[in-house]
TrEMBL record:
A Gene Ontology biological process term: regulation of DNA-templated transcription
Gene Ontology molecular function terms on file: ATP binding; sequence-specific DNA binding
This protein's record includes keyword NAD: no
Positions bearing 4-aspartylphosphate: 52
Annotated keywords: Activator, ATP-binding, DNA-binding, Nucleotide-binding, Phosphoprotein, Transcription, Transcription regulation, Two-component regulatory system
Protein name (database record): Sigma-54-dependent Fis family transcriptional regulator
Gene3D superfamilies: 1.10.8.60, 3.40.50.2300, Homeodomain-like, P-loop containing nucleotide triphosphate hydrolases
InterPro entries xrefs: AAA+_ATPase, AAA_lid_NorR, CheY-like_superfamily, Homeodomain-like_sf, HTH_Fis, P-loop_NTPase, Sig_transdc_resp-reg_receiver, Sigma_54_int
Residue ranges constituting the Sigma-54 factor interaction domain according to the UniProt record: 120-349
Naturally occurring in which organism (per UniProt): Azospirillum cavernae
Location of the Response regulatory domain: 2-114
SUPFAM superfamilies: CheY-like, Homeodomain-like, P-loop containing nucleoside triphosphate hydrolases
Amino acid sequence: MRLLIVGTLEGYITAAGKIAMKRGAKVSHTDSIEGALNALRAAAGADLVMIDVKLDVAVFIDSLKAERITIPVVACGIGTDAAAAVRAIRAGAKEYLPLPPNAELIAAVLEAVAEESHSIVCSDPAMLATLRLADQVAPSDASVMITGESGTGKELMARYIHRKSRRSNEPFVAVNCAAIPENLLESELFGHEKGAFTGAVARRLGKFEEANNGTLLLDELSEMHPRLQAKLLRAIQEKEIDRIGSAQPVKINVRILATSNRNLEAEVRSGNFREDLYFRLNVFAVAIPSLRERPADIPMIAEHFLKKYAEANGLGDKRLTDDALLMLKAHHWRGNVRELENTMHRAVLLSRGEEVGPEAIMLTSQMLAPEGSAQASIPANSPVANPFAGPGGTVPAAIPSALQPSTPPLVMAPPAALPTSYGPKGAKGPGYGNGNGGAGNTTLQALIGRTVADVERDLILETLTHCLGNRTHAANILGISIRTLRNKLKQYGDEGRPVAAPGNEERATA
Ligand SMILES: Nc1ncnc2c1ncn2[C@@H]1O[C@H](COP(=O)(O)OP(=O)(O)OP(=O)(O)O)[C@@H](O)[C@H]1O
């Protein structure tokens, strides 16, 4: 949980910040609305904003809306100022917290926000049974190994176990072992002393110390190098760690949760994962069923994301039609909940009006549905089999190219359905969706002669245009970080190319 405090809070910043930090929040502070907006724009990250009512809360919330930054805002002011409280709530603040800060109130607000963004939506008996198991293991201090296919909600489950544990008021720290190179992961986990290696200009505490008294999630643990596995085993067994470059062990009290989407037993058998570490961590195993194994969850999760993304885009209420729901239920969800989430995100952007029908549902990997699955048995000319098919199974000429999912390959529409050009007007080169109805080869051939940088620029700008200038959506679809996207856009802007402004719909759709 990251908290951004804006303004002076009548001199209570330190007190409020300390309370929040004790509850595991990371707190940052800025004096002004502009400072807060800059921090949020720069993806500095916050899950909650606490703003002084003396500042113009309405202007702040309007700016967030205009830039499509979704973040709950809580206003804080001297308790007796009822008029200010009413103004703040009318302006869109979620809560009004009276000052001086009250520890219980702040804890309740932080908890509500954490619940909101990390709640597990489910109704299928298979998932409910898994949750019951998680409820049973949560209060103990035992290590838990959470397994499941990619995108099933392993990290979400880890947060759930932490929330339900006796450590819930202490930090929850997650480290993705696959995302960090081995040499950096060691220092990330265990920290280092000043001068421990070239570039170690100051002491840095690692994630174990950051998570002290709380929970440390080792995400994608199976990717950890065997050398580090040995160091991790020692940390768990001895309950102490050695910062790199230090001869002084540091005592730690951390509960370890780990996730893996590989079969760890097989990894142990093949010698890639230490058996002793496996048994240390696998005290309890929580296996999350794939979405295929819990079909009753699909409608509920779909509605959940429909509401979330409609709200985030300021698009009002949306409702799935029966046909659309049928299509979702029939799909083979290889990417599990994450794939369903992305599909609903796209559906929100594609649909017009209140109803979300099959034409707004763009599925990935349909060709990969196994023989005999529900998907495979749907007639080809059914709107469920191909939501873009018109009467008689024809496919309309243009599907917004950039809204097609990036991975795995989109198989919804054959190449003939690609728009005539992906490139922005006036872009050099032939464009890489030449609309000639040829196979993928022809599309690829059209790229020959263009530089990677050119193609990348066109793809990024076109995706942004289709996302109506929304940076977050575009970055999601492109599979790059928002920071990378912003850097690229800045570069294109500096080169004098038109870049769709955030929320500038006229220009973005022109
Ligand atoms: N039951 C659920 N209800 C609501 N959202 C969910 C649910 N399960 C997963 N999600 C959402 O799906 C996305 C993927 O979840 P998460 O990152 O926890 O999966 P994972 O199994 O850890 O993924 P990976 O294997 O890639 O590490 C997240 O946005 C998460 O919030």
